[in-house]
Each structure stands twice: as structure tokens, then as C-alpha cells.
Amino acid sequence: MHHAQADATRFTIHDLRFTIYQLMTNEEIARRFNQMAALMEVRGEDSFRVRSYRMAAEAIETWPTEMEEIARSDGAPGLLEIPGVGKAIGGKILELVERGTFDAWERMTVETPVTVLDLLELPGVGPKTAATLHLKFKIASLEDLRKFAAGGGLEMVDGIGPKMAERIKANLDR
Q1: Is 26 exposed, middle or buried (0-12, 13-18, 19+ CB in 10 A)?
Q2: 2, 39, 79, 140: least surrounded by Cβ within 10 Å?
Q3: Average pLDDT, the chain
Q4: What is the value of pTM for the model shown?
């Protein structure tokens, strides 16, 4: 009796591991590439590279076959069949499928925390304003922005007028 219990547990753990890998669906890969593009935009990086991530994300999201399946059956050459997927992005898809992340993302999020993207959720805060807040004022989260706004910081930001400052404060308080 006790032996059967141990087997059942081992099975569950195996299923869990399988589930973790399954999370990298096309939608999830596309989401990560869109996040990467948004982070690059906030960092003021090359718009051509930003666009390449967005285009790949769009193609991947609507692709009928899962990237994982393509990677398993055809490897990198199979991924290159997808519009907008070149060698560099193909390599990143392989990394995502294999380990749920990719090196460029890891490096980027060490320097620019993913919480910076929360700034873009605020009405009136677009990529340019988020970039200014992050690069000039070292704001990396909504919490940072709350403190900054409370201290009257928004009034010092180019491109944020009094009305916009009020709107951002009101949205932060929600």
C-alpha cells in the first residue's frame, strides 16, 4: 500500500514539471517579446529592434502550430519559416521553450525591472514619458512614481503639464 502512494506522488511531480514547460505557449512567447519591446522602448533603444520584436510577437501569437512543437520537430530552421523570425529571435524562442526565459531578457530586467512596464498602464503615460521617468528620475515602479509624485516631482518632468500631473496622481491613488 505504502509503495503505491510513493508512485502516485512521483507521477504528480512529473506532471507538474511537464505543466511548467507547457506554459510557454505561443501566446506566452508573444507576450514576453512584447514586454521586451516595451522595455527596450522605455530604455530609448533602437526603434528598428523594438519593431522586430513586435512583428515577431504578432506572427507567433497567431501561428497555428505551437513554437514548442516546431522547435522539437524541426529545430531552429523550422522557426525561421515564421514571418518576422530571424536567427536572433529564433534562438530566443528556443531558449524560451527550453527554459522559460532567454539571456537578453535576463540581462535587460537586471538593469530595467519589469515593473517599469506598470507605468505604461497609467492613462497619459506613454513610452516617451515612461522613458523620461525611468532614465532621468530612476523611477522603476508605480510605488517609486507615487513617492515621486507626492514629493512634487511630476512638476519637474518635461512633457507633463499641470493637468497631466493631476491625472497621473489621481490614477495612482486608485
Answers
A1: buried
A2: 2
A3: 87
A4: 0.80
Please determine, for residue 47, whether its predicted confidence score (pLDDT) is greater than 70.
Answer: yes
Give CA–CA dist 89/76, Å, rounded: 10
DSSP element (H, E) containing 105: helix 103-111
Task: Establish whether domains 7-110 and 114-173 are of one fold.
Answer: yes
List own/partner pairs for 82-87 with CB under 8 A and 24 or more apart: 82/56, 83/55, 83/59, 84/52, 84/55, 84/56, 84/58, 84/59, 85/56, 85/59, 85/60, 86/52
For 114-173, CATH gives 1.10.150.20
Higher pLDDT, 89 or 23: 89
Domain ranges of the chain: 7-110, 114-173
The three cell numbers of residue 155 are: 512638476
- CA 125/CA 142 separation, integer angstroms: 12
CB atoms within 10 A of CB 154: 22
User: What CATH topology corresponds to 7-110?
Assistant: DNA polymerase; domain 1 (1.10.150)
Does 109 score more than 90 pLDDT?
yes
